[in-house]
Write a structure and sequence with these properties.
Elements lengths: L9 E6 L2 E6 L2 H9 L24 H9 L14 H4 L34 E2 L23 H8 L14 H14 L13 E2 L16 E2 L19 E2 L8 H4 L3 H7 L34 H24 L5 H29 L20 H5 L12 E2 L14 E2 L8 H6 L2 H9 L11 H4 L1 E2 L7 E2 L1 H11 L5 H7 L15 H10 L8 H7 L10 H16 L5 H4 L2 H8 L3 H8 L14
Antiparallel strand pairs: 1-2, 3-6, 4-5, 7-8, 9-10
Helix pairs in contact: 4-14, 4-16, 5-8, 5-9, 5-12, 8-9, 8-12, 8-21
Length: about 600
């Protein structure tokens, strides 16, 4: 994995069941948090107070250069040769055959085989709003992202979800996001730093006036931005197909397989396999981003091996390939069922989507920029300052909760505690409300003493939207069938949010899309506002209706009933020792 030197100077001191982690070098910690942070679709290296040259030979950039040494297609169809080179996965059974998904997502739509495949352009439903119409970031003349973050996103006290959404709600969102989106940094890198306001109490306490958060623009197709608007690349398949578990290319999947009885590789300790740098290996490069996410990866690889083991016992004549592909099909079905039967109703409401009726080949399910870069980043506002850790009786571990800022890129915690305390904590702790408040652990993340650098996730999200040329909030409303707002008070009645909007923006036509979505008053019976609802409804209906391999279409009888009735609580029960589990783990007891 990347960041091979992060933990070489890590000092671990045992204290009961808790490890107190210190860092001997702040640059090591800096690298550990830079790639991406909690749902971040755009992987970025970011700093404050360091020269750009500090990142010239960064391990992360070297890794990206190595794994992406391929030609970039001009037309958004990704690597042109992959579709024709990958073998079809057919399995003979009772004289018939069965088709399985390509690992790169191609060939799902027979008439448009590149729809939804890995490494194609993010779609746009709203027009790009680049300053020059091609590539210069949008939002010219708007306030500095850090200024907006300070005005709108500072959280002074806890504000738990009124709907009692659990931490597992945002955790599943992150796990799902890493299945369907991955936007990497451009190579060669394109710096787009966020200047720190003079005298910022966290990042410029000595009023130096030259501090900045380094930020790098997303990867895009190389001719886009010259004669047509820049289009960013989604390195994952759009489909809910387990890309975070299996990868989106054959080489990644093969590195994770044992090639014996359909099983995936696991460590002797029941955790994911470890690479040479001490990080866990998974289908997505962000699996080590924080320990709750890694725990989710772990239980789903365990679930794969549980199902594969059962198939091998029932069908000793089946080959490794047949067992693996059939197990993968089950896992993908489980991911889809949990997302549509539990997660989406929890966030958007039980009646949010049309009922599923049939496969619709005219639907392009490719991920939209509006979804990946704005709407599906709602979970950042749900984060608590700590990851709750509970034993199997529901009691907090003697070492207490794990501060969120200490959970990033640190596999030692899972190696010490196992996955159970974190899974139990995620389903029992109420998340923060979906709003414009974000905890300091991801908004004022200092890498040392004040002034030595840090990270501001809300500022990053605002900057990412401008990097991708997203239009403003009011314009995006129109593209998604909503009327324009005329006053800030049309967006929210919350006095604090209203005051922040009025200070941060000159008019309602100036608001960054992500900011506007989080500022919205929630719709009745839903946990999001109208624009965020419409963007997610559009994407999730397309992901289901445009998928030729959708589980409700591909499965029949007992197989369909078994998958459709599977909940995340079932997966947790089968693959951990956690026994105090509510029926719906997305809502706290």
């Amino acid at each position: 994995m990347f960041f091979s030197k992060i933990f070489k100077k890590q000092l671990t001191e045992q204290s009961g069941s808790c490890s107190a982690i210190r860092w001997r070098t702040r640059r090591g910690m800096l690298k550990a948090t830079l790639a991406s942070l909690l749902f971040a679709q755009g992987i970025s290296n970011v700093s404050s107070g360091y020269a750009q040259d500090d990142f010239a030979t960064n391990d992360f950039f070297s890794r990206q250069q190595t794994i992406r040494n391929v030609d970039r297609s001009e037309n958004g169809n990704g690597r042109r040769s992959e579709h024709s080179q990958l073998p079809r996965k057919h399995s003979t059974r009772n004289g018939g055959w069965e088709e399985f998904r390509y690992i790169d997502g191609s060939g799902n739509n027979l008439a448009n085989p590149f729809w939804g495949k890995a490494r194609i352009a993010l779609r746009r439903r709203s027009a790009a709003a680049y300053q020059d119409g091609l590539s210069m970031p949008s939002g010219f003349g708007r306030a500095n992202p850090r200024t907006i973050s300070n005005l709108l996103f500072a959280q002074s006290q806890s504000n738990p979800s009124a709907a009692r959404l659990s931490d597992m709600a945002w955790q599943w969102g992150q796990f799902l996001d890493h299945d369907i989106t991955l936007t990497e940094t451009a190579l060669p890198s394109e710096p787009m730093p966020i200047m720190i306001p003079l005298g910022d109490p966290e990042f410029d306490p000595f009023a130096i006036g030259a501090m900045r958060l380094f930020f790098f623009r997303s990867e895009y197709f190389h001719r886009a931005g010259v004669t047509s608007p820049r289009h960013q690349i989604n390195s994952h398949t759009a489909w809910i197909d387990g890309s975070q578990i299996y990868g989106s290319e054959e080489s990644t999947m093969n590195r994770l397989r044992s090639f014996e009885k359909g099983m995936m590789l696991m460590g002797d300790d029941g955790l994911l396999p470890i690479d040479g740098s001490g990080f866990f290996l998974a289908g997505d490069v962000r699996a080590n981003e924080q320990v709750g996410l890694t725990a989710m990866h772990t239980i789903f690889v365990r679930e794969h091996n549980r199902i594969a083991s059962g198939m091998a016992q029932l069908h000793p004549d089946w080959s490794d390939e047949e067992i693996f592909q059939r197990t993968r099909k089950d896992i993908v079905g489980i991911l889809q069922a949990i997302t549509y039967n539990q997660f989406i109703p929890a966030i958007l409401g039980p009646d949010a989507l049309r009922l599923y009726s049939r496969y619709r080949p005219e639907v392009d399910a490719s991920i939209t920029n509006e979804f990946a870069t704005a709407a599906f980043r709602f979970g950042h506002s749900m984060l608590n300052e700590n990851l709750l850790r509970l034993d199997n009786q529901g009691n907090e571990l003697s070492g207490g909760s794990l501060p969120l800022r200490m959970a990033f890129f640190n596999p030692v915690w899972l190696q010490n505690d196992g996955v159970d305390p974190y899974i139990s904590g995620l389903i029992n702790q109420t998340a923060q409300e979906i709003d414009t408040q974000v905890v300091d652990d991801v908004r004022n993340f200092l890498f040392g003493e004040p002034g030595s650098g840090g990270l501001d996730l809300p500022a990053f999200n605002i900057q990412r939207g401008r990097d991708h040329g997203l239009c403003d909030y009011n314009t995006m409303r129109q593209y998604f069938g909503l009327p324009s707002v005329e006053e800030f008070s049309d967006i929210t009645s919350d006095e604090e949010t209203l005051a922040g909007l009025e200070l941060a923006y000159r008019s309602v036509d100036d608001i960054d899309a992500w900011v506007g979505m989080l500022s919205e008053e929630h719709l009745t019976g839903r946990n999001v506002g109208p624009l965020m609802f419409q963007v997610m409804k559009y994407q999730f209906e397309n992901l289901r209706d445009g998928d030729r391999f959708w589980y409700q279409r591909m499965m029949r009888g007992d197989d369909l009933r078994r998958i459709d009735r599977t909940t995340l609580s079932h997966v947790i029960y089968r693959n951990t020792n956690v026994r105090k589990i509510q029926r719906n783990v997305f809502i706290t007891p």
